[in-house]
Amino acid sequence: MKTKLITAALSATLLVSGTALALDMDPKFYVGGEVQGHQYKSAKQIKDKNGNVILDSKDFNNKSFLKKSGSSGSLFFGSKLTENFGLEAGYTGFSKNKHTLEGTIGANKHSLKLETKNQNLYLDALGYLPVADNVDLIGSAGIGRLTSKVTANDTITPVAGGANTVVKTTGKSHKAGVRVGLGAQYKFNANMGARLMVRHQKGNQLVKSVNSAGLGLFYEF
């Protein structure tokens, strides 16, 4: 998913939203939850807090330090300020990403067990474009703060034979990045609705970016 393409697709919706916001304010608040599937882009290196390289993917045949996919759940709270514009804040907790890599570095074989934990806080501006009764297209743009922590247990075995050594290292990174999304929602009645969203968010030094697709329910009051 390319950020430039998504941004271009959002432009018309957000333009309509800005005009509507200037003309009419009728705030409605909502809460909801969403389940999501993700695709990750992993860093090539894992560094400590001082910027020193702890692990390099080249030593493991350029394999990723993350599984390429995972799942998560989000809770969100928002306000639809007008028919065409709203704001939303939320929290996303990701399932643990567990991964094992094998490689040989110099005179030692390495069996690397990795566990990565991710969480995300975000604030989005949403543009709504009604296309049918109770159906809106949605465009979103905002900022997300993705926090990632990786724990690596490295079992080191000498090629020539000898006792194993286990070395544990950790790395952590957090960074605010741009996020954009597209989707649609359907309202079952005056209060309840469902939505489907696809998003792209820039990440941090450990998780370079995240693409997601999510299905959610919301209650408007």
What does this structure look like?
The chain has 221 residues and is mainly β. The protein is 10% helix and 68% strand. It is built from 1 helix and 11 strands, in the order αβββββββββββ. It has one helix spanning 3-23, and strands at residues 28-42, 45-47, 53-56, 69-80, 85-94, 97-105, 108-132, 135-158, 165-187, 192-202, 207-220. Strands 1-4-5-7-8-9-10-11 form an 8-stranded antiparallel beta barrel. Strands 2-3 form a two-stranded antiparallel ribbon. The protein is elongated. Mean pLDDT is 88; it is low at 19-23.
Strand-helix topology:
Layout: H1 3-23, E1 28-42, E2 45-47, E3 53-56, E4 69-80, E5 85-94, E6 97-105, E7 108-132, E8 135-158, E9 165-187, E10 192-202, E11 207-220
Antiparallel strand pairs: 1-4, 1-11, 2-3, 4-5, 5-7, 6-7, 7-8, 8-9, 9-10, 10-11
The second-level CATH architecture is: Beta Barrel
The largest beta-sheet arranges its strands as 1-4-5-7-8-9-10-11
Largest sheet: 8 strands, antiparallel, barrel
Summed up, the domain count is 1
Question: What global shape is seen?
Answer: elongated
